[in-house]
Fold:
Amino acid sequence: MTIAKADRLKRLPPYLFKEIDRLKAEIQAKGVDVISLGVGDPDLPTPKHIIDRLQQAAEDPSTHQYPSYSGMNDFKGSVARWYQRRFGVALDPDTEVLTLIGSKEGIAHFPLAFINPGDVALIPTPAYPVYAVATMFAGGESHFMDLVRDHHFLPDLGAVPADVARKAKFMFINYPNNPTGAVAERPFFEKVVEFARSYDVIVCHDAAYTEMGFDGYRPMSFLEVPGAREVGIEFHSLSKTYNMTGWRLGFAVGNAQILDGLGQIKSNIDSGAFNAIQLAGITALESDQDCVSEMQRIYQERRDVLIAGLRSVGLQPEVPKASFYVWCPTPNGYSSEDFTSLLLRQAGIVTTPGSGFGPPGEGYVRMALTVSKDRIAEAVQRIQRLSF
Ligand SMILES: Cc1ncc(COP(=O)(O)O)c(C=O)c1O
Structure:
């Protein structure tokens, strides 16, 4: 029998971490102590009070049945209260909050609700790969908006041709940004709302990293801007804020009609997030946020060690005000892949080639602050011994 996969799988870009994983395995097999600054997965454990609540909730048989499709009312209420406290944004928990099985799930399903074959979506590049892949899975075409240093890694909306803008169904933006670590301020979000209104484009703001701000910086929500709720939604996640990547809990908030479309897709695909996890999510959002401040302090310390170390060898990394990524230009004309490979082969350090996030990422590597300060210091010492 011939097993023929669908064309959409043939159109997938090469898996970003495939070559790195292969090289990493090869280097580890030689007995090298590898330091991984590759994947953006927090190394710290979920805070204990959240784990305790999950344990207790899992003992309660009422959590064992199918959850509600759109999420537990109590969890959605907690999300609304958290948005009010954190951003001063009032949300109706019934219609303006949708529970997700991690924000990736919502992002990946979103285009199925709004794209017809051949429709266009505006997608940043370099970017989290799911935006473009999910658009392609739904039969849409991505029009890429370059994120470059000269434009503070914000898309230049004026550079989107008017005929493309008129055809576009939605736009993804993501601040604090993966992979560049860039942040966006109110004037940018205001321009996005104006653009969305002019061209009838839905805005999806991926806000997964708003709680990872440094030096007292507190990233804002897109929904704080007047008119944002009329044009868009925001994706959010408990993954990075509370070291809960494995738990799979996120949410989307904002425009009720847009959320209703996403909810319709979801109700035909999944059956909601495990109630015990949503109950633990309530504990995360409603408890004292000291664990979040502690998380920010730890990443800030790591960031400072890495930035100082990279500068000591003449590299000129962007200093992130938020997110846990350092976006570093490669030295002396090295391509992203060549520099990534040099760091791995000669220093045992895993980084991600910027080109893997999209062509304008060429000439950069991404380093995730997901190992201890001591390991970062060790990585810096190894880099200082290299010549490039
Ligand atoms: C920009 C961005 N959005 C969304 C996600 C997905 O996060 P989760 O599905 O764990 O909520 C990630 C994960 O790395 C990310 O980097």
About this structure: DSSP finds 14 helices and twelve strands in the chain. Residues 69 and 272 are 5 Å apart (CA to CA). The pocket of pyridoxal-5'-phosphate is lined by residues 40, 102-104, 128, 174, 178, 206, 208, 237, 239, 245, 250 (CB under 6 Å). The mean pLDDT is 96.
